[in-house]
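quick one: carboxymethyl coenzyme *A bound model?
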Amino acid sequence: MSEIARIILDGIEYELPVFEGTEGEKAIDISSLRAKSGYITLDSGYKNTGSTKSSITFLDGEKGILHYRGYPIEQLAEKASFLEVSYLLIYGELPNVEQLEWFTKSITMHTLVHEDMRRFFEAFPTGAHPMGILSSMISSLSTFYPESQNPNRPYKDIEKTIHRLIAKMPTLAAQAFKNSQGHPINYPNNKLSYTSNFLHMMYALPSNDYEVDPVVEDALNKLLILHADHEQNCSASTVRIVGSSQANLYSSVSAGIAALWGPLHGGANQEVIEMLETIKADGGGLQKWVDKAKDKTDSFRLMGFGHRVYKNFDPRAKIIKKAADDVLVKLGVDDPVLDIAKQLEEVALKDPYFIERGLYPNVDFYSGIIYRALGIPTDMFTVMFAIGRLPGWIAQWKEMIEAGDPIGRPRQIYTGATARDYVELKNR
Ligand code: CMC
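yep, here:
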């Protein structure tokens, strides 16, 4: 690989350093370009801009590869537990037995949320979207732990904030759900595993003896792992950029939840099921919807299709599609929406529009079908994504803080009016 890039601007040649990552990805370091030449680079949506060097997640969009800290997603989804993967992302290595015990115990100790937070739930209107509630609740945690607002606190305190977040996120998510149902909340049961405890808080009622089905627990564990990190996506970049101003971790993650909520990002999982339901209610004819998605005068898109980075296939979607089949069979659920999803995939994947643009089902296309089978309501789907993505956000934030990255602050090219004089109101 060449060690420098040469760029000619206004007849002058500038040399810029070139950087190569451990998996052979190449980048031109343009950080000195403006100082040397007066030019900046322009790249809306950061489609070709690396915002950081990172050693957390590697993905190759062309080959459909996804690794967390070097470990293939297929192996982790098959064999690991969600807390094990969380430890891997945050601390950089898989835990040994003692380390996992220590981590699990610490997380388990922090699952309760302050009783004063119950009053916040009461103030939300009936039917409030749980992503709005979750984002507010996570940000509110910083007011219960004011020491988290100090950017210069000792490492042990930072670690406690990290563990508190992982511990309290499922509690708050389940409370948001219970609130929307008008049911009494369930307190965490610290004898249960992370995923079982979440299911218990979601589904146990005073009138039932809820027992966690191991099929459901396994499926949930897999889904959380598949969502755990995805390098510099919209929400992770949001967490990093908010955190770069030294805003506290709770607020940074709350901003990440808001970014995830959008239908082009994590909110797509809810949109997919709503789209499939609409297609079903419309009689199930698929070509009409594929044609609508291709029509540039129609704003409709096939939700759950396409990805900024994956242009061949999304490895997470492959695993989820198989898991959806397995879970539905094991739970004895017959969901006609799964058949529509499969037929839609078949029609779209034969269509030149989707082939030419590299549009394949992404992680959100089949995840909603599993969530439905597990009894999770549609507006909780993106909350499930947020619980899964939390260790990734934390790992990205921690890496940014430890590297001492400067505050995130892109530049722009101004295209507005040039300098002009103020005109008195009466003369306009
Ligand atoms: N249906 C129809 N056309 C599409 C779709 C789609 N789902 N996705 C992209 N296209 C077209 C788009 O119109 C454009 O066509 P043209 O070149 O003729 O203008 C071309 O494909 C490239 O699309 P883009 O919008 O420039 O690509 P992007 O990288 O900016 O957007 C995306 C990626 C995921 C936002 C987009 O594919 C999309 O909106 N998909 C549907 C929403 C979705 O499923 N989001 C979940 C993403 S995976 C979960 C996560 O990690 O967030």
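The mean pLDDT is 94.
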